[in-house]
Every structure is written in C-alpha cells, then in structure tokens.
SpoU rRNA Methylase family protein
Amino acid sequence: MRKLKLHELGRITIDQFKEAPKTPIVVVLDNVRSLHNVGSIFRTSDAFRLQSIFLCGITSTPPHKEIHKTALGAEDAVSWRYFDKTTKALELLKQEGYLLIGVEQVEGSISLPEFKPVKGDKYAVIFGNEVKGVDQKVIDQCDMCLEIPQYGTKHSFNVSVSAGIVLWELAGKLFPRK
C-alpha cells in the first residue's frame, strides 16, 4: 500500500464547495471558548460538507490565526454566522424549519446510535461550552437531545471530539457510506 499524494485526493476547490449540495445540518456552537476547538469543528464541517456553522456568545469568529491553525482554511469554505445569543440563532433556525438537537446529557436524551434522521429534514446540532456544556436556556429550546454513549470513568468528551462523533454518525445515516 502507498500513501496518496495531495493531488490524488480529488479535493474540490473552495468555490466548488460553496456551489456543491450540502448535508442539511447546521452546527451551532454555544459559547465554545477554545479557538482550536472552533477551528477543528470548521474542519469537520468541511469534511462532511455541512450547511453552515452558527457561532454564538463568546465563541470566536474567523478570521483568527488560532482558528486557522486547526481549521487549515476550512473557515473560508464553510459558511458561518455570528449571534450574540444562542437563543436568537435557534429562533431563526426554528423559523427556517430546522429540528433543534442539543448534544447533552439530559433526562430523556436519545442515545446517538438509536437516532434515525429522516432524509429531507433539516437539523441544527448544538454543541456547548467546554466546562458548562449546552446552557439550560438553550436546552429548553431544543426539540430533543442526543447523548453519546460512554463506558469509562469520565462522562464527557472534548467538544470537537463530540462534534466529530455526532456529525460522522448523522452524516453517515443521512448519506450511507459505500
């Protein structure tokens, strides 16, 4: 086996990305404080060709060298918007017909492997602050919450790891892998 060179990967350009059909998922970052986490989530969103990212509250916005350090240019491809309050972003998404899904450990949460997204529906997936998680006021606006099963002594993941797990699972269910 031979490692592929960059020119062999069939990457699309930023302009092609912007014109390409998108996975009907908007990522909402609720007060994510680490710029490296924000950049990593931009890269993941680029990989799964997501609709957009909504950056809310204290979440930093591009351009920023610390976001770029992990996004590696994905912040130029993936569309994004800033909202001073996450609740305002969710109100807009609800009006646009998105199902609001918090990723949090709550009463009545649905285990991620059990969730069955419906093709044709639009999803807004909300990820929270590294310490406090998704704010309760935001949870109150959600239609549902997903929880990632965990089996160790800790009961949390880094927010960018959570985003990678959840978005991989949802994108795979919306567009089955070959």
Observations:
- The mean pLDDT is 96.
- The longest strand covers residues 23-30.
